[in-house]
Design a protein that fits this description.
The complex is a heterotetramer of chains A (430), B (219), C (359) and D (138). With 430 residues, chain A is mostly helical. Chain A folds into three domains: 128 residues, Fumarate Reductase Iron-sulfur Protein, Chain B, domain 2, CATH 1.10.1060; 157 residues, Up-down Bundle (Glutathione S-transferase Yfyf (Class Pi), Chain A, domain 2); 121 residues, Rossmann fold, CATH 3.40.50. Chain A has 23 helices and seven strands. In chain A, α22 links the parallel β6 and β7. Chain B contains ten helices and no strands. In chain B, α4 packs antiparallel against α6. Chain C is of the alpha/beta class and 359 residues long. Among the domains of chain C are: 162 residues, NADH:ubiquinone oxidoreductase-like, 20kDa subunit (Rossmann fold, 3-Layer(aba) Sandwich), CATH 3.40.50; 74 residues, Cytochrome-c3 Hydrogenase, Chain A, domain 2 (Irregular). The chains are: A mainly alpha (430), B mainly alpha (219), C alpha/beta (359), D alpha+beta (138). At the A-C interface, α1 and α11 of A face α16 of C.
Chain lengths: 430, 219, 359, 138
């Protein structure tokens, strides 16, 4: 056994727990999880059945933690997990799994499959069986602060531009603010409008906030590659900054995995509950809407559908906020059949969008057909979402299928139709 | 060995051994599984109506919207044969009597004609489910020896029980003995195969519900 | 007592019509076509009386009682008039050497033609010393008598299957006739005791057609043993409705409900009691409120208790508690090993660095 | 003491017996065949009713259909037997009972006169002897 494989098995030994034992013992090979996985439904290839993606984990569980499995291994009835096998499984665990968690919803015996994929990735990561794209993104995040290698001066530049556009001051490193606002590199680079929208809305609501120059990046490639140690390094930056600036709340950007990393995995990664609250931007917006602060000057007339990002809605629990918000700003919102926690993934989550091999991109394009179908069935030209990663994947899909569909970010859309900002407000630029 | 000796053996020592292995296996496996522990979730919980392990234990018995259409055979066939097995095992007069003798509880039985009908329907559903496993690429791909074996081990008690009461193929005594023997094989196989899902499914659903309920998602 | 049977019967006050009526009913019971009744009557009326030797072995004489006390004025008994019963210890006047001589004589005179009836099982332990007649062991006598017979009728469960003497732990090493004799046609008429009409039915068949009736896989006449007691039981509808007597004195028992739960072995017992009944059609065990014991099945005595329902465990669970304890113990042992392993894995955790991501 | 005095009796007669099974009507066709054969060849035949899966209701139905004819014979021989011609001449309903009055077997015979009714030549011969004896005594 190679040293890296040994490390992988060791990591799995650490993470296998009672739920995993229960899940594997319950599986009846009914194959229903395949019907919930867009990589299967859009390709028809049975190897993309979610439970099959977990085969190495199942064997390690059986061989390490069951008496019969140990005996079977000893007499050669159960073959050991090998590097070659993990190599083969890399595609199944990363390229064709976006950690969207739809399979966990359908399993009739109640298996939480995505929970297991996340754990299997711990073993895959340390044994080196990870796609280069995700590995590089992780490296960049750990080394430079963000998956795209973005550094503070570049961020500061974007902030300055936003201040100019909005005419509002964007506070940085201001201790005692209510909110520490986090961003994701993708928003900074591709959708800077998000920052402007946040500035406007906070100003309108009169809530104090700040950015942190040493913790602006919310995304966490560590949880995508599946390594808790590295994920902890990344998330600790935010925790440290939040504690240093003594903010009450940390505002997660739209980005799905960022929310997952800071809201749900964060406390478990650092090993203690947070002294601050983590809020997703949509939760804040919905709260403002309910308070009547979020008033629209007009509404978007185009018929549109909503794409609920998996990590925020199905896996993040922000179930109720998105719909009232979209109704607030859109006159012709058309709910899709599979909405909210049932929504289909864009195909680029879980780090998949960072994998740029030809095969992975082709597979993603195939998987995207399900989104294409949703759009076509609704007969709309506009789709709204609230995750930077989803947006990139969906735009790629639109390009691939040469669709003329418009894709909008929910927060920006809200900001765009917001009642004009009161210019005399305190936080306005002089 | 005569028929009656065979029958007496399966009713006596055979049953003793089978129930012994069953109890031993189930306890061993369940303890092995559930003592593996689970880390406490340190993230601040979000509360949502209908989100809990308990809810999921029940909710998961119904298909998610759209799924019934995607895999009707799995759901409908599955419901019919699980319900059929439950009706036969828990509402057939001789079975209730067995349970009464083992644990002292008893309740009214259904007419034997109804149980016979349930057996036929159950077997039909099981055959359909088997055909589905052979035909559907995903199921065939996932299937291992264990899947075929456990199907047979589940099917045989129903078949032999029904054939015994209908006086088919073999004399009643032989068929009854085979019926009891096949049920004993089922008991022996159960703890060490996927059939354990009859027990662990509650744990699995509960864990799934609990983990997601922590995030405020009713699953 | 030579001459056609009908004359013998007439002398006993049995009219021809009575005999015809009896044969019609007998044919019906044996599931023979209606016309067979008359053929039977004619054949039997004119039949030559075959020599019959009746050997009693390890038995209780219940079978003989059953036959000879069959209902008055014993048409069944009359049938015996059409055979020449040359040896029957219980019934014959001769005793001692005379009796033995009669047997030897009959065997010699009718060599190859006589019918051998056996009741009782044959003990084999201690060279058969458990049961001897005139200083000779049963097994010895049987072998000798069987050698020259045309066919054997094993009367009762002991001769058919070993019966009560064979019950666990079978101290005398009792076996059935068919365990010893392999080269002769044998018809088993099990029951403890057997139903008289079954006996006469078989004799009638033998006399009419010169052969034994069709037998099932246990050597029993299909016409009488084809169905189970349960199949033909008048209480069967209660079984189907799930109505059971739970004690011998409860409301269900008074209502005449099914006795399955009280241990009735009807479902696994092949016999004609439910249709033929006993004591001239007066009643039979289930009708009198008691479950079937299964007396016509092999090893019925060791069938797990007369009052234990068929679907109940034959023995009380012996090691269920022990198995549960061992299972729990195994589980706990594995869980300790698992927890130790997992703690060790956690303790030896090496923090991952970026370099670790490479293969 | 009669059997009725024993306090175990079936209060609710087992169900399943009432109701027609549909097994009776085909018997009428079979009887028609048998009557034809009797007329064509003179060959008598019979149906063993106890060997067929007929409920009491089926038997009643059959009995009603066939009706009763002109002749009713009662035979006292080890219990009563009744040999009754039905509404269809040549079709006889025959019931044998034992001494306790229970039905032991039941037939429908298709014949000009049931065999059991006819006196056997040898019995007639005995009658002849008796008559001669009586005359010789005169």
């Amino acid at each position: 056994m190679s040293a890296s494989l040994e490390k992988g098995i060791h990591a799995l030994r650490e993470v296998i727990d009672a739920p995993i034992a229960s899940y594997f013992s319950s599986c009846v090979h009914c194959g229903l999880c395949a019907e919930a996985c867009l990589f299967y439904t859009e390709t028809g290839d049975p190897k993309y059945t979610p439970i099959h993606k977990l085969e190495p984990l199942r064997r390690v569980y059986e061989q390490e933690y069951t008496l019969l499995g140990r005996l079977k291994k000893r007499v050669g009835l159960s073959k050991a997990v090998t590097d070659a096998e993990l190599d083969e499984w890399q595609e199944l665990v990363y390229d064709s799994c976006t950690l969207c968690g739809r399979c966990s919803l359908v399993c009739p015996v109640g298996n939480d499959l995505v929970y297991m994929v996340r754990k299997l990735r711990e073993g895959m990561a340390v044994s080196g069986h990870v796609p280069d794209g995700i590995r590089n993104a992780t490296k960049r995040t750990v080394e430079t602060g963000g998956p795209m290698g973005l550094k503070w001066p570049a961020v500061a530049h974007v902030l300055k531009h936003a201040e100019e556009v909005t005419g509002l001051k964007i506070p940085v490193d201001q201790a005692g603010a209510d909110y520490l606002v986090l961003l994701s590199s993708m928003e900074i680079v591709n959708y800077p409008e998000y920052i402007e929208a946040i500035a406007r809305i906070f100003h309108k609501a009169g809530i104090s906030y700040t950015l942190a120059s040493d913790a602006y990046e919310a995304t966490n490639a560590g949880i995508q590659i599946g390594n808790s140690d590295l994920a902890k390094v990344i998330v600790s930056r935010i925790v440290d900054a939040a504690e240093k600036l003594k903010v009450k709340k940390v505002l997660s950007p739209e980005c799905g995995h960022a929310y997952m990393a800071i809201r749900w995995e964060g406390p478990n990664l650092v090993g203690r509950p947070f002294g601050f609250e983590v809020v997703h931007v949509l939760e804040l917006l919905d709260e403002l809407r309910q308070k009547g602060v979020l008033k629209m000057k007009d509404k978007l007339k185009d018929p549109l559908i909503l794409h609920d990002p998996c990590q925020i809605v199905r896996r993040g629990g922000v179930l109720q906020a998105p719909e009232p918000l979209i109704r607030q700003v859109a006159e012709n919102y058309i709910p899709t059949a599979d909405k909210q926690k049932l929504n289909w993934c864009c195909g680029g989550g879980g780090g998949a969008s960072a994998i740029h091999t030809e095969a992975a991109e082709a597979l993603r394009a195939k998987a995207f057909k399900i989104k294409k179908r949703q759009i076509e069935e609704a007969g709309v030209d506009t789709m709204v979402t609230f995750c930077a990663n989803c947006r990139i994947t969906i735009e790629e899909g639109f390009d691939h299928y040469e669709m003329n569909t418009k894709l909008l970010g929910l927060t920006e859309l809200l900001a765009e139709h917001l009642e004009p900002v009161d210019a005399n407000s305190a936080s306005a630029l002089p | 060995m005569t028929d009656l000796q065979f029958l007496t053996w399966v009713r006596g020592p055979g049953l003793n051994i089978a129930i012994g292995i069953f109890l031993l296996g189930v306890l061993w496996r369940l303890i092995e599984i559930y003592t593996l522990g689970r880390r406490k979730d340190l993230a601040a919980p979000r509360h949502a109506a209908g989100a809990s392990g308990f809810h999921t234990v029940f909710r998961r018995s119904l298909p998610l919207p759209g799924m019934l259409k995607r895999s009707p055979v799995s759901y409908i066939g599955g419901y019919i044969f699980h319900a059929g097995l439950a009706i036969i095992v828990f509402l057939g007069a001789p079975h209730i009597l067995l349970i009464k003798n083992l644990v002292g509880l008893s309740w009214p039985a259904l007419p034997s004609q109804f149980i016979g009908l349930a057996a036929v329907v159950t077997m039909a559903a099981m055959v359909v489910v088997l055909a589905d496993r052979i035909n559907k690429p995903v199921k065939r791909f996932l299937s291992t020896f264990e899947d075929w074996f456990t199907w047979a081990v589940t099917f045989l008690p129903v078949l032999t029980g029904w054939m015994a009461t209908q006086h088919l193929l073999l004399p009643y005594t032989q068929m009854l003995a085979l019926h009891i023997l096949s049920a004993e094989i089922l008991l022996v196989v159960l703890p060490f195969s996927k059939l354990l899902h009859g027990f662990t499914l509650f744990g699995s659903r509960w864990y799934n519900g609990k983990v997601n309920a922590h995030k405020g998602v009713p699953v | 007592m030579q001459g056609p049977l009908i004359d013998t019967l007439a002398r006993q006050g049995i009219t021809r019509r009575t005999f015809l009526k009896y044969c019609a009913t007998l044919a019906s019971m044996m599931a023979l076509p209606p016309t067979a009744g008359r053929a039977m009557a004619e054949a039997m009326a004119a039949a030559r009386r075959p020599s019959v030797i009746w050997l009693p072995f390890q038995e209780c004489t219940g079978c003989t009682e059953s036959i000879t006390r069959s209902h008055s004025p014993t048409i069944e008994g009359m049938i015996f008039d059409m055979i020449s019963l040359d040896y029957q210890e219980t019934l014959m006047a001769a005793a001692g050497h005379q009796a033995e001589a009669a047997r030897a004589n009959a065997m010699k005179e009718n060599a190859g033609k006589y019918l051998l009836i056996v009741d009782g099982s044959i003990p084999l332990k201690m060279d058969g010393a458990y049961s001897c007649i005139g200083g000779r062991s049963n097994v010895d006598i049987l072998k000798e008598a069987a050698a020259g017979c045309a066919a054997i009728v094993a009367m009762g469960s002991c001769a058919s299957y070993g019966g009560i003497p064979k019950a666990n732990p079978n101290p005398t090493g009792a076996v059935s006739v068919s365990d010893i004799v392999k080269d002769k046609p044998i018809v088993n008429i099990p029951g403890c005791p057997p139903i008289p009409v079954v006996m006469t039915g078989v004799l009638a068949h033998y006399l009419t057609f010169g052969s034994l009736p069709a037998l099932d896989d246990k050597g029993r006449p299909k016409s009488f043993y084809g169905d189970t007691i349960h199949d033909r039981c008048y209480r069967r509808p209660f079984y189907d409705q799930g109505k059971f007597a739970r004690t011998f004195d409860d409301e269900g028992a008074r209502q005449g409900w099914c006795l399955f739960e009280l241990g009735c072995k009807g479902p696994v017992t092949h016999n004609a009691c439910a249709t033929v009944k006993w004591n001239g059609g007066t009643s039979w065990p289930v009708e009198s409120g008691h479950g079937c014991l299964g007396c016509s099945e092999p090893d019925f005595w060791d069938g797990g208790g007369f009052y234990k329902a068929l679907s109940a465990p034959a023995d009380p669970l012996k090691f269920a508690a022990a198995a549960a304890v061992v299972g729990a113990g195994a589980g706990v042992a594995v869980s300790f090993a698992n927890r130790a392993k997992k703690s060790a894995a956690r303790a030896s955790h090496e923090t991952t660095t970026l370099a670790d991501l490479e293969k | 003491m009669s059997l009725d005095a024993i306090p175990i009796h079936v209060v609710n007669a087992p169900s399943g017996e009432p109701g027609l099974t549909g097994n009776a009507p085909p018997l009428l066709r079979e009887l028609l065949e048998q009557v034809r054969r009797l007329l064509d060849t003179g060959e008598p035949s019979a149906i063993d009713l106890s060997a067929l899966p007929l409920t009491p209701a089926d038997l009643d139905w059959l009995h009603d259909k066939l009706g009763s004819g002109e002749i009713a014979v009662a035979l006292q021989a080890n219990g009563e037997s009744t040999l009754n011609e039905t509404g269809c001449p040549g079709v006889w309903w025959i019931t044998h009972r034992n001494e306790q009055g229970a039905v032991t077997s039941q037939f429908i015979e298709v014949t000009f006169v049931p065999e059991l009714v006819k006196a056997h030549p040898r019995d007639v011969a005995i009658g002849q002897e008796q008559l001669e004896f009586m005359i010789s005594d005169l």
